[in-house]
Design brief:
By secondary structure, the protein is of the alpha+beta class. It is built from seven helices and four strands; from the N terminus they run E-H-H-E-H-H-E-H-H-E-H. The longest helix has 11 residues, at about 20-30. The radius of gyration is 14 Å and the shape is globular. The two termini are about 15 Å apart. The structure holds adenosine-5'-triphosphate and magnesium ion. Adenosine-5'-triphosphate binds near residues 52, 57, 109, 112 and 118. Adenosine-5'-triphosphate (ATP) binds near residues 52, 61 and 112.
Amino acid sequence: LERTFIAIKPDGVQRGLISEIVSRFERKGFKLVAIKLVVPSKEFAQKHYHDLKERPFFSGLCDFLSSGPVLAMVWEGEGVIKYGRKMIGATDPAKSEPGTIRGDLAVVVGRNIIHGSDGPETAKDEIALWFTPKELV
Ligand code: ATP
Ligand code: MG
């Protein structure tokens, strides 16, 4: 069954949005197969966002991801990669539709509270980066 990597970024954890976000995925009917709270190092954040290393905001983005606890999760279900992205909403919360997580709960792109894998290959790579096989239930 399809799996995706979802993370609540330090701003989402700090703002107390864990239960709100987890409950949206639970209510939809997706299955939680792994979850842990971690403070990633900057090097780890750079690995996670390696596709964006040429972008001007890369360093700030990695500093931010490593600035506090991140709730790392793996969710499973039919279509969970694409539908998870739909639930999350557009990258820039100013353009996210109301009803999406970013649309309802965030305002600026640098503090958009949640990450979701953008395709099957990145989902596979990100799950392997953040979790050991034993941590997947
Ligand atoms: P994520 O990978 O975090 O789920 P995304 O796939 O919607 O987000 P990406 O293009 O992968 O968007 O960008 C990764 C993250 O980099 C964004 O979530 C955002 O926090 C940050 N980011 C993207 N564009 C900008 C920008 N123009 N300025 C500042 N930060 C940005
Ligand atoms: Mg992305």
